[in-house]
Design brief:
The strands form 2 sheets. The chain has a 6-stranded mixed sheet, with helices on both faces. A 6-stranded parallel sheet has the order 9-8-7-10-11-12, with helices on both faces. Helices cover about 40% and strands about 15% of the residues. It has 12 helices and 12 strands. Strand 4, helix 1 and strand 5 form a beta-alpha-beta unit. The structure holds 1,4-dihydronicotinamide adenine dinucleotide (NAI) and phenylalanine. Phenylalanine (PHE) binds next to strand 4, strand 6 and helix 9.
């Protein structure tokens, strides 16, 4: 691997640094962004997809690493913020892809514990097994057969589910989801699992996915209604749950027809001012890095800290308490819920735990 670009930074990014490499065999760009080690070693998923260019990929790694710092801090979990992005060309053969993952694993090993990783969009527990062949012992979210805790999507969905209950309690005075309408953008590992949990709880569930096969799989459950991906953000509902890539942006805010936004997507707001714009419309926003911490907490807890599944479940369910504190602090301080969540995370960072 040869060194790639040096130095370009996101305006205002206050992280530790980014290690960027080009994988000569496939042409893929690899960007490992280390944001903070205040609470523990920088730790975050490996996202694999094709980007428009190296600087876009590196920026995404930086923003996602920053979100991980706040995610671990809000959960008071002993890890720092980091994230890896593999900007891989489309259409790699399975063999070429595995080779890339193994070379990426060597980089993780070279970093010697300064970066710990797990799955994210575009990578699976099986991929973690492959990365682990060269990157062990710094790779988590492996398959159960590979000695890991398995996929993180179901745990993340549980955290989103208890967050939706918490938002409903605040808006409607009851945690019951019976008859509540929830529209989910993205029926992937988190969205599909969340849809099932919500249907089990008696909610009216709509899902939309830009991949027709993913939508069809989710819609095989007769309790789950598939709606077009275009316009899902404007569905009239109690809770809109962005569980895809991206999410709400300035142009979509005037069209939102929900009472709350509670989803798994990392960095679902295109710009910081979107939080205020959503609040100004009287819509409750549950901050992403509080809501979506379940997978990272459970998988890392079980694989690295020796937690039982029961302990992991209790830690994920505790997201409801953190979110309740976020809503209370936003009220008290007359600030947005996004600012309140940030404040709670910053307090944990300042206290070093
Ligand atoms: P996934 O890749 O399994 O599923 C995402 C789904 O969204 C795919 O089916 C894709 O076709 C669909 N999609 C993409 N763009 C769309 C659009 N514009 N409209 C409708 N559907 C669209 O990903 P996963 O694991 O379910 O993650 C979902 C989101 O949650 C991501 O943003 C991820 O970063 C975030 N997240 C996931 C965690 C996990 O444990 N899997 C943990 C924390 C956050
Ligand atoms: N993709 C996870 C997230 O964004 C990160 C993660 C998963 C980290 C599993 C470690 C283990 O929260």
């Amino acid at each position: 691997m040869a060194d790639l670009l040096a130095g370009e930074r996101v305006d205002g990014w206050d992280g530790l640094g980014v290690v960027s490499r080009v994988d000569a065999e496939t042409g893929a760009g690899i960007h490992v962004a280390l944001h903070s080690e205040r609470l523990g070693p920088p730790s975050g998923g490996t996202r694999m997809k094709s980007y428009a260019g190296a600087s876009e990929a590196r920026r995404d790694a930086q923003r996602l690493a920053e979100a991980m710092t706040y995610k671990w801090a809000a959960a008071r979990f002993p890890r720092g913020g980091g994230k890896a992005v593999i900007d891989a060309p489309d259409g790699l053969s399975a063999e070429a892809r595995d080779g890339l993952l193994r070379r990426y694993g060597s980089l993780v090993r070279e970093l010697g514990g300064r970066f710990l990783t797990g799955p994210d969009v575009g990578t699976s527990p099986r991929d973690m097994d492959v990365i682990s062949q060269t990157g062990s012992p710094w790779v988590f979210g492996r398959t159960e057969a590979g000695g890991g805790a398995g996929g993180s999507g179901g745990w993340t969905a549980l955290g989103v589910f208890v967050s939706i209950e918490t938002a409903c309690e605040r808006l409607f005075g009851s945690r019951s989801l019976r008859g509540r309408r929830v529209a989910i953008q993205g029926a992937g590992s988190v969205g599909a699992d969340l849809a099932r949990r919500l249907a089990d709880a008696g909610a009216e569930v709509e899902v939309a996915d830009s991949d027709a096969r993913a939508a069809e799989r989710a819609g095989a459950d007769p309790r789950i209604r598939v709606v077009p991906a275009d316009g899902v953000l404007a569905r009239p509902c109690d809770v809109l749950s962005p569980c895809a890539l991206g999410g709400v942006h300035a142009a979509s805010i005037p069209t939102l027809a929900c009472a709350a936004v509670v989803g798994a997507a990392n960095n679902p707001l295109a710009a910081a001012e979107n939080a205020g714009q959503i609040a100004a419309r009287g819509i409750l926003y549950a901050p992403d890095f509080v809501v979506n911490a379940g997978g990272a907490i459970a998988v890392t807890g079980m694989e690295a800290l020796g937690w039982s599944a029961e302990r992991a479940e209790a830690a994920v369910r505790a997201i409801a308490e953190t979110l309740t504190r976020v809503f209370a602090l936003a009220d008290e301080g007359r600030i947005t819920t996004a600012a309140a969540a940030r404040q709670i995370a910053e307090e944990a960072l300042a206290a070093g735990r």
